[in-house]
Amino acid sequence: MKVIQHTAKTLHNALVSNSHDLVQIYDKYTKEEKLLLEDGYRAGQTGSLFQPITVHSDSDWISAHPEEPQDFQSFYRDRHRKIPSASCNTVYIQTIGSFGEAGVDTDQYVEWLRDYCQAFFHGLSVKSLPAVSVSDTQCSFRVNSNSHNLQILTGDLLQFLRRKKPKDAFCIIGITMIDLYPKDSWNFVFGQASLSEGMGVFSFARYDDNFNSKCYAGRLTKQLQPKQGDYSVFEGYYTPPITSMLLLRSCKTMTHEIGHMFGIRHCQWLNCIMQGSNHLEESDRRPLDLCPICLHKLHVSLGFDIADRYKALLSWMEEGQSQTSGTETASAHHPALHFPKLTQSFHSSKLWLRSCLDKLGKD
Fold this sequence. Notes:
Layout: E1 2-4, H1 8-15, H2 20-26, H3 31-37, E2 53-55, H4 61-64, H5 72-77, E3 90-96, H6 106-120, E4 125-128, H7 134-137, E5 141-143, E6 150-153, H8 154-164, E7 169-176, E8 179-181, E9 191-194, E10 199-203, H9 244-261, H10 280-285, H11 292-302, H12 306-318, H13 347-359
Parallel strand pairs: 3-4, 3-7, 6-8, 7-10
Antiparallel strand pairs: 1-2, 5-6, 9-10
Helix pairs in contact: 6-9, 6-12, 12-13
């Protein structure tokens, strides 16, 4: 295992820069906000809210995909980065195919994702579009020759999203529980995006803990070879049960990918939700939120109050949460939805958010 430990000076330059106009932007933060952001300089030390990046193997993202680090200055000066405007200020979520089984209603799960993104990108409107079936997209599909599960073609899904994208969209994100592939020569892909067009599609299928096991319920018989255009094969097709861990993983993927839509590249400074991940184990090691440098990037794009954003995220985790007794609760805003929120896997994140608010003097 290798620990990437940057010096305080390097992290300061990445966060603030030496450019006068960017220093002026940074100086708009309050004293308490600066204390929080600059706590990253102490990453890994006792009591610090932030941790350095740890590389566990050569298969981890940083080892396998060398990239130029993006500091705040290079982010801010990027002429191609997207900023929400008065006419394009909404994130749209488009579900594709069936979601969830046994207990948690599809609409409830998508509502949780929508509300989490609303809190994470505080101040930006997030809306869910009416669900569509795989046949509605008219996409190509196949049975994977190795894992024997159904897969749908990302390029066709992006074309569908391009047609569906509302005029006021900052971006549109397609999500599905069906596995994806980008072209015939590839085994699979977690997702694909067009940042210039503000759209992407991502699958949560491989977030099922049993996906790689021989008993995975999504495996089809080897003899089954459905014909293109015969979408009946997707009727009643297996979708993984909605668990707290799957919800956590879904929230991570959604916010990471939407973060890219703002022009935030993979983080190489500190342990951060914007780190790249090559595999599920690496993705699970990422924290749920942003490091100070990436938080600064998002803040300059949206202009939220940092404490208010943390409070919104904490409120999402605590509102309507599942109890150990299994007692069902109903949201005050959505009384028709009766499933307790599956936030058991968010416990460490709740503690972290409370520590951040304490640092800001807003506990």
